[in-house]
Amino acid sequence: MQGCEVGTRVRYWLTLASGMLECLCFAGVVFGYASLVFVLKEDGYFGELCINHPSINSNCSRQDEQFSLVFTIASFLNNLLNLINGFLFDRFGTMVTRLLAISCYTTGTLLVAFSSAASALLLFPALSCIAVGGIVLLLTNMQVGNLFAAHRSTIITLYNGAFDSSSAVFLIVKVLYEQGISLRSSFLFLSISSVIHVLRTFLLMPRTHIPYLLPQCYTYGVHCGKANTYNVEQVEKLGAGAMTVSQETPTPEDSTETKDTEKVTSFWSCVLSWFFLWHLLWLSIMQLRHYLFIGMLNPKLNRLADSDPQLVSQYTNAFAVTQLFGVLCAPWNGLIMDRHKGKPLAAGKSPTQEADLRSSCLSLFLTSLQCLLFSVCASIPVLPLQYLTFILQVLNRSFLYGGNAAFISIAFPSCHFGKLYGLVMSLSAIISCCNIPVFALVEGALDGNHFYVDIALTLLTLLVFIHPIYIFIHCRKRSQQEEEQHSGRSPMTPEQKLQRLCSRKSFSLHHMISFTFHLFNFTFNLKFCSNC
What we know:
Elements: H1 2-27, H2 33-42, H3 61-80, H4 82-92, H5 94-113, H6 123-141, H7 152-165, H8 169-178, H9 183-192, H10 194-203, H11 232-238, H12 252-263, H13 267-271, H14 274-295, H15 297-304, H16 309-323, H17 326-337, H18 352-379, H19 386-411, H20 417-432, H21 435-443, H22 451-461, H23 466-487, H24 494-502, H25 509-531
C-alpha cells in the first residue's frame, strides 16, 4: 500500500508540473495579441487599409480597426464556445476533449505560419482556433486541483495565472522577429510542440475526470496493472463515504446531509441561483473592461506617443513583460480562498462549503477593487502612468479568472463544473461583443479619443461590488441561523435583529452592511403587513 501511495504521489506531482508548463507556454498566448500586432504591421498585414503609403504620418485607423476585430472575434469565440466545451468535457471526459482542443490549436498555429500579407484574412480563423484550443487546455487542467484537496483553489488560480502569463509568448515571438527569425518559423515551432500535449494527454491525464473527493490510490494514464479509477458523479454522491482517503464510516446525520445535497445539485437549480447570476455580472463587466483595454492598446499607445514607433514598441514590450508576472500574482488569490482548509471546524459552525464561501468574499472584493483602480489609471491620458496601468491590469486579470474558476468549484457541485464554467464564460462573451461598436465609436465619432469611453467603463465597474456584498450577506445570515439553531433559540424576527444592531456601541464595516440589510428587510415587512 505504501508503494502504491508513493507511485501515485509522484504521478500527481508530474501532472501538476507538466500542466503548469502547458498553461504557461501555450494556453493563453492569444492575449499577447498586442505584441503580435506589432509584428503583423511590420509584415504589411492589412496595410492596404491605410489611406496613404505606410509612414509615420499616414492614417491607418481602418487597419487598427481590422486588427481589433480579429481579437474581438477570437476572444468572443474563446468564451462563447466554452459552453460546448464544458458539455463535451463533462460528457466525454478529458481525453476526447483534449484531443479536439489540440487539433484546433495546431490548426490555428499552422494557419498563422502559412499566412502572409496577401492572405491576411486567415488571421480570423487562426486566432480564433488558438484561443478556443488554449482555453480548453486550461479547462481540462483545472481538475488537477482535485489531486491536492487542501490546496485546490490555490492550484486552480495558479493555472489561471500561468494562462495569463503565457501571453508573453507573443513578446518572445516579437523579440525573435526583431533578431531576424521569421514569424513562420516561430509558429511552426508552436505547431510541432503540440506533440507534447498529445503525449501528456495519454501519459499524465485521466481518460474521464479526476473526482473530488479523491479515492484511495487513485491512478490514471498509462500504467502497469489495473487503474483504480471511478466515475466522478459516483464519488461525489458517496461524499465522505467508503471511497475517501480517510475511510471513515458515515454517521446517520452525514447520510441525511448527503441525501439533501443530491436533491439540490441539478444543473438548472445552479444556473437560476443568485450566486450564478451575480457572478455572471461580476465576470462580464470586468472581462469587458480588459478586452477593450487589450483590443485598443496599440492605437491608444500610438495616440499618447504621437505615433513614435520606438516609444510604442517600448510600451508594448513593457505590457508584454508584465504579463509574465500573472503566474506570481494569481496564487495569492487561491491562498486567500484556501485559508480555512486546514482549520478544524468547531461545534455548531458552518460546513466546509460555507467556510470557503466566506473566504471567497474577500477575494471577490479585492478583485473588484483592483478592477476599479485599473480602470481609473487607464482613463488618465498620461503615457508614463501606463506602466502602473499594466501592473494593475495583470494583477486584476490574474485574480479575475483564477477567482472565477475557484468560486464555481466552491459554490457549485464538481459534476457540473465544466458546464457551469462554460456557460458563464459563454454568456459573458455576449457582453464582450460590445467591443465592436465601442471601438467603432472611438475611431469614428470620438476621433480616436478613448477618454469618454474609459470614464463610462469606470462607472460601470462600480456594479461589480454587488457580488461580494451579496456573498457577505448570505454568509452572515447562514452564520446567524446556525448560531440560533445550535443554541436552541427560535430565530429572531426582523425587529429583534434591528434592535440588536442598534444597541451596539460601535459599528464596523460588516455591521453597517448588516444594518442596511435588516433595515430594508424590516421596512419591507412593515409595508407587506400594511397591505394585508
